[in-house]
C-alpha cells in the first residue's frame, strides 16, 4: 500500500464528552496506520505536505462539504438474522425466537444458504460506514468460518463467534449443540481455524467465545467456555440482563444477576462484550468495570425486546467501556449512526419518562440524557476501545479506519451549511451526521488504510 | 397529461389496522386521478390492459423488487427552520426558541434569504416521498407567499400558513405581529393571495389560518383568527398541549385545556390540525372528535421537547383523525417514514416504560403499542383524510399521489426478498420500508399523476 495524505475537515471523538471539528492534514502510512494528524496551516502540517510533495505521495483535498470521521463500530450483530432485518418486530419474544429466529438460524447448517447472505450483509455494513463488527454467527462451524472468510475478503474488521447453546429447556432439537463436549471442541476448532485463515496474519478477523446467553446454556457449557477462553486467550461475547424475563430467569436459576454468574463461570474478562445490560445494578456495573468488560448498548432493539432503556450515563460514570450495537435483527437498522441517534432519543425518553398521565416530577429518571457528542463516541472509539483495538480516533499510531462523508452528495438529507449556518460547531455537525446520514453521504470507507467501499479518492 | 398504467406490487393502507400487498394493475387517468386498481390476473385487470393496448397508453411493469405505495403526508413542518434541521437539539426549549429559532425565522423578512431555503426544502421533501405537506411559514407575507409558489412550481400538495403571533410576553420585538389588526389583515390578504396564485386553480396549494400557539397570541388575535377562518372557510393549524410547560401555561391563563380554549375562540373546526397533543385528556379527545379536527403526531420532536409520548391509540379509539408530522426542526428528520418507525418505537416505550429501576408492572402504560401497519396509515391516508383530501390510497377517484419504491436499488438498506423470505406479508414489507427506506429507494414520486421527483417510468 502507498502512503497518502487527506486534507480537509476532520471530526474527531476526543473523549466521550468532547469532539472536535478541525481543518486538518492527515498522513496515512504504508501500514494503514495514521502517521500524524495536524491542524491545517500549522508548520507541522506544512512539513507533512512538503514531505508528501517530495516523495510523490497522493494528496487528496476534500471539498468544504466533505469531512472525515472514524468508521463505526457495531458491537452486536446476529449475522444469520440478516434476512429478517426489519421484519417480525411485532411478535412477542418467545414467538419471535421459536417461529422465526431459530428456524432461520438453523438454515445456516447449509453453507450454500449462508454464502450469499453473509456476502450481502458484510458489503451492506461497510456501505453504511461500519468498519468494526462483532458477530454472533450460528452453531455451524462451516458457515461461521465462511462468515470470517467473507469479512476478510471484503476487509471488514470483525470478531466472529461460533454460537454455543445446549440447554434443551430453551433450544429446539434442530438447533442446539449435541453436548457440552461437542460445543467446546467445536469452539476450540473454530478459534484455531479463524486465527489460521490465509490472509489473516494481521488479525483483522478474530474469533470470539460465544455462549448465546445463560438461559440457553447449561452450567457445564458455561464453565467449559470460561476455561476455554482463558486457555485460548480469546475474547467473549454474550447477552446480559437484557429483559425482565431474562434477568429474572437467571436470578431464579443461579441466585445472582447475570454479571455475577458470568464472572463465576470465568466469562467476565477484559474485552468481554455484554449485549444490552439494561437491568444491571450499580454493583453489576462495578464488577464489569473491575473486569474491564464492556456493554454493547442496542437502543432500537431494547425498545422492542427489553422493556426498558439502559441508563448509559451510569455505566459511563462507573467507568465501564460502552459502545453501540445494531442487534440485527432485534434491531431493524444496519446503521450504527441510526442507532447512535436513537441512543440520544431513548436517553431523553428515559430522562423525561413517557407517560403523560403521570406528573412530570415522577414521570422519568432525570439525569439520564446523552448528547450527540456522547453518541459519536459510543459509535466509534467507545466500541473500538472496548475491544482493545487501536482505531476509532484520528491519532498517531491508530489504524486508519475512516469514512469520508459528503454532505453535498446527490440524495443527501444532511444539509451542507449553505444558508449561513456556522460550520465549526462540532456538536451541530455531529448531530446532523448522526441524525440524517444516508448511504448517498458515505463516499469512501477505509479499514487500516484499505479502501473497502466507495470511491478511491487517493488515486489521481 | 396522458393516461397511464402501472402493473406490479401495490401496498395499500386500507384502514388504520389493515394494509394489503397485491399484484395489481393501476390505471391513472388524464386528470391525475386513479381510474381503477384491480388485482392482476382478474378479468377486470385484463380489460384495463386491453383498453390500454387499443389506445396506445403507456404501460409500465414494475420489477419484483419494486412496489407502489401512497405518498407520505407530513402534517407539521416549520419551513423556516429548515436550515436548523438536525442542529441545536441539545438546547432547552426556551434557549432553543430565543437564541436560535426566533432569530432564524426573523431572517425570512428577506425573500432573497427565503428563496433558496424554501426551494431546497421542497425538493428534499419530495425526494423523501412526501406528497402532502402542512407548513408553518413565518409572519412575513412576501416570503410565505414565495413558499406557496415554490410548492406549486415543484408540484408539492401543500397547506401554507402565514404565522400569527403578537403577544409581547413571549414573542421578541423583532419577530412578532405589530397588532391584532395587522395580523388579521395580513392573514386575510395571504389567504386571498394563495387562492389566486396563477396555476393554483386546482387548489394544490391552500392557505391555513395559523396562530402559532396560545402562549404566543393574545386573546384578541385568537378570537379574530377564529372568526376569519369561518368567514374565509379556511383550514386552521396550531400547536396543542405539547409539553408540560405549554399545557400548564394555557391552563393558568385560560382556566381550561388547549382544546377547550381553542374551541371557544372558534379555532377547533373540521380539518384543524393540532400538532403534538401529547397531554390531551379523554375529554379533549372527545371534543376534537366532535369538531372533526386532527392530531399531527410528531414522535421524534416529542422526545426532545414534549417530555412524554402521545397515547396515539387513545386518539384513534376516540375516533380522532391522526397523522404524522416531522416537526422540522424540533424533529431532526425530513422523512415521514423515519417518523413512522419512531411512532412505533415510541409507542413501545410508552407501553413498556423506560426506567429499569421500576418494576415491570408499574413501569409503563400497557395497551399503548402500535403496529407498523398502523404507522403506514398515519404516514399516508391518516394525514390526507385529516385534511379532507382525496388521496392516500389506491382507490378509484383518489388523486394518484404515489411513490415507486425500488428495494433492489443500489444503496438500498431495504432487503429485497432474495433469501427465500415470503414476499406477500404486507406487515413485513411495510415494516421493512418504514424502518430502512433511504433516498436511493425512492425511484419516482407523483402528485396527482404528475411526476414530481425521480425517473419518469411511464415514458417509454
UniProtKB/TrEMBL annotation, chains A, B:
Cofactor(s) named in the record: Zn(2+)
Cellular component, GO annotation: cytosol
EC top class named in words: hydrolase
Top-rank taxon, per record: Bacteria
Molecular functions per Gene Ontology: guanine deaminase activity; zinc ion binding
Domain Amidohydrolase-related: 68-450
InterPro entries: Amidohydro-rel, Metal-dep_hydrolase_composite, Metal_Hydrolase, Metallo-dep_hydrolases
GO biological process: guanine metabolic process
E.C. numbers: 3.5.4.3
Residues annotated as signal peptide: none
Keyword annotations of the record: Hydrolase, Metal-binding, Zinc
Protein name: Guanine deaminase
Gene name tied to this protein: guaD1
Amino acid at each position: 500500500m502507498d502512503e497518502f495524505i487527506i486534507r480537509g475537515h476532520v471530526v474527531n471523538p476526543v473523549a466521550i464528552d468532547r469532539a472536535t471539528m478541525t481543518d486538518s492534514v492527515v498522513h496515512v502510512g504504508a501500514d494503514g496506520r495514521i502517521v500524524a494528524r495536524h491542524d491545517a496551516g500549522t508548520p507541522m502540517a506544512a512539513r507533512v505536505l512538503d514531505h508528501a510533495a517530495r516523495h510523490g505521495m497522493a494528496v487528496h483535498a476534500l471539498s468544504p462539504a466533505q469531512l472525515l470521521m472514524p468508521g463505526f463500530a457495531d458491537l452486536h450483530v446476529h449475522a444469520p438474522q440478516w434476512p429478517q432485518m426489519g421484519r417480525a418486530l411485532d411478535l412477542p419474544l418467545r414467538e419471535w425466537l421459536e417461529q422465526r429466529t431459530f428456524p432461520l438460524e438453523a438454515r445456516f447448517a447449509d453453507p450454500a444458504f449462508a454464502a450469499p447472505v453473509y456476502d450481502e450483509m458484510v458489503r451492506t455494513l461497510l456501505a453504511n460506514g461500519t468498519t468494526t463488527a462483532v458477530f454472533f454467527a450460528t452453531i455451524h462451524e462451516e458457515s461461521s468460518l465462511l462468515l470470517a472468510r467473507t469479512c476478510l475478503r471484503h476487509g471488514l474488521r470483525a470478531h466472529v463467534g461460533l454460537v454455543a447453546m445446549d440447554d434443551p429447556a430453551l433450544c429446539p432439537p434442530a438447533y442446539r449443540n449435541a453436548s457440552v463436549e461437542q460445543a467446546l471442541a467445536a469452539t476450540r476448532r473454530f478459534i484455531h481455524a479463524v486465527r489460521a485463515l490465509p490472509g489473516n496474519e494481521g488479525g483483522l478477523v478474530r474469533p470470539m467465545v460465544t455462549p448465546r446467553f445463560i438461559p440457553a446454556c447449561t452450567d457445564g457449557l458455561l464453565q467449559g467456555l470460561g476455561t476455554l477462553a482463558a486457555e485460548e486467550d480469546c475474547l467473549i461475547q454474550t447477552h446480559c440482563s437484557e429483559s425482565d424475563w431474562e434477568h429474572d430467569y437467571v436470578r431464579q436459576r443461579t441466585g445472582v444477576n447475570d454479571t455475577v454468574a458470568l464472572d463465576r463461570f470465568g466469562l467476565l474478562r477484559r474485552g468481554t462484550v455484554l449485549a444490552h445490560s439494561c437491568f444491571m445494578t450499580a454493583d453489576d456495573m462495578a464488577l464489569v468495570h473491575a473486569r474491564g468488560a464492556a456493554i454493547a448498548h442496542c437502543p432500537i432493539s431494547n425498545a422492542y425486546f427489553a422493556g426498558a432503556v439502559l441508563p448509559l450515563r451510569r455505566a459511563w460514570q462507573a467507568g465501564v467501556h460502552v459502545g453501540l450495537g445494531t442487534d440485527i435483527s432485534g434491531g431493524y437498522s444496519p446503521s450504527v449512526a441510526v442507532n447512535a441517534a436513537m441512543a440520544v432519543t431513548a436517553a431523553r425518553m428515559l430522562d423525561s419518562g413517557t407517560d403523560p398521565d403521570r406528573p412530570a416530577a415522577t414521570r422519568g429518571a432525570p439525569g439520564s440524557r446523552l448528547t450527540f457528542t456522547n453518541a459519536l463516541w459510543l459509535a466509534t472509539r467507545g466500541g473500538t476501545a472496548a475491544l482493545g483495538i487501536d482505531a476509532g480516533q484520528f491519532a498517531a499510531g491508530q489504524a486508519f479506519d475512516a469514512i469520508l462523508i459528503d454532505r453535498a452528495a446527490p440524495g443527501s438529507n444532511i444539509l451542507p451549511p449553505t444558508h449561513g449556518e456556522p460550520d465549526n460547531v462540532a456538536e451541530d455537525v455531529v448531530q446532523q451526521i448522526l441524525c440524517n446520514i444516508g448511504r448517498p453521504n458515505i463516499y469512501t470507507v477505509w479499514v487500516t488504510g484499505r479502501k473497502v467501499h466507495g470511491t478511491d479518492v487517493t488515486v489521481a
